[in-house]
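Collaborator request, handled under Task 6.
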Amino acid sequence: MFNDSKGQMLLRLQKLLDVSSENTLTVGDGANDLSMFKYAGKRVAFCAKPILKEKANIIIEEKDLSLILNKV
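Structure tokens returned to the collaborator:
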């Protein structure tokens, strides 16, 4: 896996499904998820490292993915 692998895959999925970045939500916890964040309007840092929190617009600190529903 390369630094931009997740981002490139997300970009391909967006094109295939005709989904805009504004309608894309990504969830990550570490630096290897940064490449996805540049293609998503909603960027969730889930129990994440500080580097990812800096780029997120939604931060969840508890290990409960259902908390994302209250933020979107």
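The cover message to the collaborator said: "The chain has a mean pLDDT of 93. The longest strand covers residues 42-46. Please let us know whether this matches your experimental observations."
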